[in-house]
Structure prediction request, 274 residues.
Amino acid sequence: LQGRYHYYRLHPFSLAELLSVFPKVQPGEELVFLDSVPDSNFKNLLQYGGFPDPFLEQSEKFLRRWHNERLDRFFKEDVRDLTQIHDLGNLTLLADLLPEKVSSILSINSLAQDLQMNFRTVANWIEVFERFYYCFRLAPFQSRRIASVRKEKKLYLWDWSELKGVGPKVENMLASHLLKFCHYLHDEGGWKVSLHYLRDETGREIDFLVCYENKPWFAVESKSEGQAISKALFHFRDALKIPFCYQVSLEGSKDYLKDGIRVLPLAKFLTGLV
Prediction:
C-alpha cells in the first residue's frame, strides 16, 4: 500500500493550534513568533494539558477523574488485551514512579532496583508505555565536538497535566510542543527533522536541540522563571555552531537578544511551533 496513503501522527493540542496560528516554517530558518499571546489560552493549556476532553472541560474535578479513568483503561484494557504482560501490579507501580523522573535522565537500572525486578523486564515495559503513548524519551545528540553522552535518554509524559512541580511541567509542555513540531515537519513535508537534548561528559546540559538533516538547527533552554542566560547554551552554541539559540521562561514578558541568544517568554516561543 506504499504511496496510497500518508502517515500522520496525532498529538495533543498545541498553543499555536488553539490560536489558529499555522506559521510557515522552513527548516534551517529562524522561527517567527506572535507579538502577543492571550494569557488564558496558555495558562489553561499548561494546567489542563493538551488532551481534548480535560482541556475543553477546564475543571479540576473532571481532570482528576479523567486521569484515574485513563490509567485504569490503560492497564486493564490496552495493556492487558494487547500485550502478554500479566503482572499489572508491578506495571502500575512503575507508572507511579515515572512522573517523578520527568525532565531527568531515566535510569532503568535504578527503576529495576526500586521494583526488585530485572533490567530487561523494566526496559520492555518502558517500551510498552511508549507504544501506547503514555510517555516518550529523547536521546542525546551525538557529536565528537562535545564528548556527548551516548545512551542515557530523558523521559517525558504525553499528558503533562499529571505533573505537580512547575519546572518539570513547563519543560514537559515544551518537549511535547517541540516533538509535535518535528513530527509535523517530517510527516507533512517529508523533512528529516529530529529532537534531542544536549549533554556532555562534564555535565553541561541544554534541554532541547532540534536538528535538520542531522545537523543542529536551533537549541532551547527552559526556565520556570527569568534567570541569567545559561552558560551551557553559549558553550554548545559555539562548539556545535548552532544557528539559533533560545532561552524561554514561564515568568516575565521581556523579549531580547543578548550575545546571539534570544530570551523570550515560553508562551510567545510556542506560537512559532506548528
The two ends are 28 Å apart (CA to CA).
